């Protein structure tokens, strides 16, 4: 970090190693280096004094959590946060590349920010996150949006303080996107809010599902050392957090990259089970690596919630094969059977893609029948979106757009029906909820979640926020249930 060119030097150069999709596929078992020496350089600690930043976050929880890390660093530099873009001195777009419409939103926002930048030339505009790892996107920004001041990738987040300094003094766009992806940076500051916290347990993805851009934008699979994860969880427990969600693109592959120890996701969950933090969740589980040990550990319940997000993507074994998901319809159903046997009240949710290249009507009907058979409580449903450089993008996409839309519509209708049905089952029951805050529309109504992650609204006072209470479900809707507080049921938060 010390030998970076000084921003004030005339011969300031853009340092840029473009990401290569072909190379990503070849990545081997290079050693994962864990760095424990992160700190904000002394000279940059007052850099943001009197200045404001705004970060707009797109995409998944991984990105949300990266935003918390960036906020942590900016806070330590003396910046203050704002939600008002007119007030902001730094605006960062933390982007998502998962589908075309995610990228369109960012390019749309850049269009709006152009005039803001013209009015306030001192404004620093940065693009980071998954889109910055795509060569085509970086080139497009450099050519069509030259007013952007900085672009940095998902492996360079810890470099934000230095890059911000460079961008402030440089007349050229600062671009730093590392293809190198073997490192884990510990001890990054994080600005967490509320009673729930995200905890990264691993980075990257090695599954290379044929439709997916993530293995390229997030790099190879690498797990944080168990002692680092456990120390972070203990620290969050001490600080009074009520719920943690362990994050990884495929948490069930946790530990598979350790060469010196045998330690799996099941082992990690078992150790976290013993820590005094009330609620533990995780996302996302790939069905392929979901083993019996993990099922057994989860069946102990306690602080391990009986909700599993288990993306199936398709109910057709042929489509699953083309997606390279490495399991069949039958294999998935067998896994669900085993999970239900061990945890009878488990709630399962999923992700589904419709209109994958070549998907026939019959194959789509297999998805519909699988959804009914499993009885998911809810699902994120998507129309397939070709991503440049992925194997599926080269497959013949012969499903007409209207058919894709029709399939999505039918699937969503089915999911609405299933969600309502499963909520109806709660009617009259008393459930434990964690109160997260006031509802968005009415300050007298509190918003809470059941152990199974269902949204519950009930009338209550602000002092209940951060506490676990019992409510009786009195009314059900499709996406939420309404309840009444059971008196004397408050379980203290800390
Ligand atoms: N790692 C997670 C998924 C992360 S991406 C997993 O494997 O379960 C979240 C979801 O986006 C995926 O589950 C998939 O349903 C969807 N998705 C990914 N790529 C897509 C694409 N090219 N088109 C449409 N949906 C996609
Ligand atoms: Fe994408 Fe598949 Fe990895 Fe999930 S497991 S991030 S869908 S490649
Ligand atoms: Fe999007 Fe990157 Fe997450 S592509 S879904 S933000 S890992």
From TrEMBL:
Which Pfam families does the record associate with it?
Radical_SAM, TRAM, UPF0004
Offer an example of a GO molecular function term for this protein: tRNA-2-methylthio-N(6)-dimethylallyladenosine(37) synthase activity
Query: SUPFAM superfamilies from the entry?
Result: Radical SAM enzymes
Main localization (coarse): cytoplasm
Q: Which UniProt keywords apply?
A: 4Fe-4S, Cytoplasm, Iron, Iron-sulfur, Metal-binding, S-adenosyl-L-methionine, Transferase, tRNA processing
Q: Where does this protein reside within or beyond the cell?
A: Cytoplasm
- Per its UniProt entry, which superkingdom is the organism in? Bacteria
Positions bound to [4Fe-4S] cluster 1: 60, 96, 130
Q: What does this protein do?
A: Catalyzes the methylthiolation of N6-(dimethylallyl)adenosine (i(6)A), leading to the formation of 2-methylthio-N6-(dimethylallyl)adenosine (ms(2)i(6)A) at position 37 in tRNAs that read codons beginning with uridine.
Kindly provide the name given to this protein in its UniProt entry.
tRNA-2-methylthio-N(6)-dimethylallyladenosine synthase
């Amino acid at each position: 970090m010390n030998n970076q060119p000084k921003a004030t030097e005339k011969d300031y150069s853009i340092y840029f190693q473009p990401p290569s999709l072909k190379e990503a596929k070849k990545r081997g078992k290079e050693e994962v280096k864990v760095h424990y020496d992160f700190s904000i350089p002394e000279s940059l600690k007052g850099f943001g004094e009197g200045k404001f930043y705004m970060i707009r976050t797109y995409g998944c929880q991984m990105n949300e959590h990266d935003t918390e890390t960036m906020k942590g660093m900016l806070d330590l530099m003396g910046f203050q946060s704002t939600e008002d873009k007119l007030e902001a001195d730094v605006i960062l777009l933390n982007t998502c590349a998962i589908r075309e419409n995610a990228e369109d939103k960012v390019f749309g926002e850049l269009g709006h920010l152009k005039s803001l930048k013209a009015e306030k030339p001192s404004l620093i505009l940065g693009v980071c996150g998954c889109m910055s790892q795509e060569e085509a996107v970086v080139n497009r920004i450099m050519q069509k949006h030259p007013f952007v001041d900085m672009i940095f990738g998902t492996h360079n987040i810890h470099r934000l303080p230095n890059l911000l300094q460079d961008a402030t003094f440089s007349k050229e766009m600062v671009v730093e996107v590392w293809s190198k992806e073997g490192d884990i940076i510990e001890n990054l500051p994080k600005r967490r809010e509320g009673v729930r916290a995200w905890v990264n347990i691993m980075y990257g993805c090695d599954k290379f599902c044929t439709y997916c851009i993530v293995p390229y934008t997030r790099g190879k699979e690498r797990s944080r050392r168990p002692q680092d994860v456990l120390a972070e969880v203990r620290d969050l427990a001490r600080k009074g957090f009520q719920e943690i969600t362990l994050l990884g693109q495929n948490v069930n592959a946790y530990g598979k990259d350790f060469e010196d120890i045998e330690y799996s996701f099941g082992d990690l969950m078992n150790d976290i089970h013993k820590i005094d933090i009330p609620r533990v969740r995780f996302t996302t589980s790939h069905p392929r690596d979901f083993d019996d040990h993990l099922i057994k550990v989860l069946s102990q319940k306690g602080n391990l919630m009986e909700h599993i997000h288990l993306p199936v993507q398709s109910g057709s074994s042929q489509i699953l094969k083309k997606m390279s998901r490495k399991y069949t319809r039958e294999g998935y159903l067998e896994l669900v059977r085993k999970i239900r046997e061990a945890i009878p009240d488990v709630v399962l949710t999923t992700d589904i893609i419709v209109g994958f290249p070549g998907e026939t009507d019959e194959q789509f009907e297999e998805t519909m029948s699988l959804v009914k058979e499993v009885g998911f409580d809810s699902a994120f449903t998507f129309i397939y979106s070709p991503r440049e450089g992925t194997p599926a993008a080269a497959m013949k996409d012969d499903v007409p757009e209207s058919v894709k839309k029709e399939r999505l519509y039918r699937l969503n209708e089915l999911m609405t029906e299933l969600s309502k049905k499963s909520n109806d089952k709660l009617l009259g029951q008393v459930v434990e909820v964690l109160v997260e805050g006031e509802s968005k529309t009415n300050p007298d109504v509190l918003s809470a979640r059941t152990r199974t992650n269902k949204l519950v609204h009930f009338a209550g006072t602000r002092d209940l926020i951060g506490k676990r209470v019992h409510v009786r479900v009195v009314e059900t809707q499709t996406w939420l249930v309404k309840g009444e507080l059971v008196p004397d049921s408050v379980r203290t938060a800390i």
